[in-house]
Amino acid sequence: MAMPPPSTKNLGDTLPYTWQRVIALPVFLLALGLYGMTLAPTVVTVFDDSLEFQLVTYLLGITHPPGYPLYTLLGWLFTHLPLGDVAYRVNLMSAVFGALTLALVYLIGLELIVGSSEPQEGHKADVRHSWAEVLAALIGALALAVSPVFWSQATVAEVYALNAAFVAGILLLLVVGTYPPSETTLLALALLFGLSLTHHRTTLFMLPAIVYYLWPQYKTWTLRTWIRTTAALVVPLSLYLYIPLRGHVGSLDGTYVNTLEGFWKQVTASGYGIFIFENPFGAERGIEFYFSLFLEQFGLIGLVVGLLGLAVLRRRRARGLTVIAFTTYLAFNLIYRVADIEVFFIPIFLIWSVWAGVAAGWLLTGHAWVGAGRLSWLRLPVTLLAILLLVGQSTILFRDNLPQMDRSSDWAVYDYGRDVIRQPLEPNAAVVGILGEVTLARYFQETEGLRPDLLLVAADQEAERLETVARLLGEGRTVYLTRELPGAPERWSLSAIGPLAQVVPQPISEAFDATIRVESPVIPEITLHSYDISRPPIQDGRPPVRVTLMWQARAPVTRELKVSARLVNSDGQPMVQADAVPVHFAYPTTAWRPGEFIRDVYDLQLPATIQPGEYTPIIILYDPAQGATEVGRVTLPPLRLR
Question: Is 311 helix (H, G, I), strand (E, B) or coil?
């Protein structure tokens, strides 16, 4: 029997429940309020993709494969909002798309709950209780909203909130409206799917569900339908032309090559196949890992309710669509061996939350009680109990996850980056470090115009950094390191300035300027010449106490000693301390040259509980190889903390 041609009805013609759908707007606004309240205020990471996205979107550059052209363009628009700094604005984009995802999940749940309210054969139709259907759909959206993995991706600049919005949008189109689908639905589905492929290629795992949806009636499509649908799918892919058009800007790591071969390698992300065919991080995950992951997102009640929702979902096509999508994503995730596999489960968590909403609808709308007869008097108390359990589970998860998910006071990375870029470095000096650290400094250069004269050089491999330092010194530049570099102490002297280590070609024979001179021998080989104490500004909380020490090596030191800088109270109890190998672990005492001066810096991070008053700084040298045996100490004059 021939299938009917695509319907010409408008999308949503079969959805009479208007006011229930309008509630998607307050769902969006409430979710945006939650994620806005816990949103990261600025840059909060150094070694993941978030920092890259915050800078690349501002520069309209090229991100790592597959290039994310849609995300970059949308992020660029958000960077022009008059709110916070550039990083905050890109973080806000994740909050917006996270909130949009929850509104779409609500609509999906509402459609499946209302759409499944047809009576079973042999029973009369129930009177529709709209409040129960709305509450059930809200319960499903709430389950996803407070799940820690999804929540975490809605508060920082990352690609997964927008990807979840695409998955939810595609799923909504698959479950809503008439069947066979109208041509409007087909075009919307093709356009949304094509657009999603310009963002995150894992939306390809929605393709089996889409094929399942279209397969029974695709042979009835006219040539006009084929042409228009294909065009709607292909046209969004032209966004990838952004990459060669902006290829002259390049990528932050400098790996993108603006050639046809380079473009192809970028958009196919061929290098990521290593995480499927090999296991570079040695990730071995058993069933207990995945069970714990689901348990962390939904709790035990949420797990049970999700399974119940799948069991009671009476719309055969919707059940098939969600099961296929769930299974496809799960199969990929089981073989994909990246370190952060949790974020790839977000589409799966999204589907699970939809099932949870369906289960809630089954309980709250009375379908669980069809044919209950004399037991129907139990309906009201059991329904109330179900509401308490479902909402209570999400409330508990919200309470437990909020402290970890709230990034609104996370200024540590911002403070570190500004500390680096605001040091009194020589004009045209070079800062050499690994990519994340250099990108952080570049963020302040580009977005705030700080120290544009500094040359920032990223070199992840130690041998490459050594070679880079030697080359820059040969060019006559002053060079600073963001971290310790094996091999450097044997070739050069090192001295700290703020959080950086200066590379000095020849040992420093004269002391740097210092506020307080002490000339105190700590051990026969090492003298504390002088010191400074300062309070570098930070955005939130108490500024640390920065102790800058000026050591002088009197003779060769045969032991690798560590320094412990402490603040003790009037009772002699240490309140805070910082222990390290001198010069931020970069310049061990065995490398010190006799007669040279070494500047050394320690930041004492004050706990929130510390009380105002007088505290005494103590500097201790100890031998970690001998059970942290103290070999010498200097007590400095007390300082007053306010």
Answer: helix
Residue 107's closest CA among 126, 133, 143? 133
pLDDT < 70 stretches in the chain: 1-17, 115-129, 177-178, 366-380, 382, 514
Tokens 């909402």 -> residue? 391
Alpha-carbon dihedral sign for residues 429, 419, 158, 306: positive
CA 123 to chain centre: 50
CA distance 52 to 484: 23
Cβ–Cβ under 8 Å, residues 240 and 67: yes
0.85 surpassed by pTM: yes
**Boundary-marking domain end, from 405, 434, 464:** 405
* Residue where one domain finishes, among candidates 377, 405, 433: 405
- Residue 568: which CATH number? 2.70.50.60
Q: What is the 3-state secondary structure (H, E, C) of 419-482?
A: HHHCCCCCCCCEEEECHHHHHHHHHHHHHHCCCCCCEEEECCCHHHHHHHHHHHHHCCCCEEEC
pLDDT digits (tens, 9 = 90+) for 127-146: 345 788 899 999 999 999 99
Q: What is the pLDDT of residues 439-497, one digit of tens each?
A: 999 999 999 999 999 999 999 999 999 999 999 999 999 999 999 999 999 999 999 99
Ramachandran sector of residue 541 (left: φ over 0; alpha: ψ -120 to 50; beta: rest): left
- Residue 181 backbone zone (phi > 0: left; psi -120 to 50: alpha; other: beta): beta
**Tokens (6 digits) for 292:** 């714990």
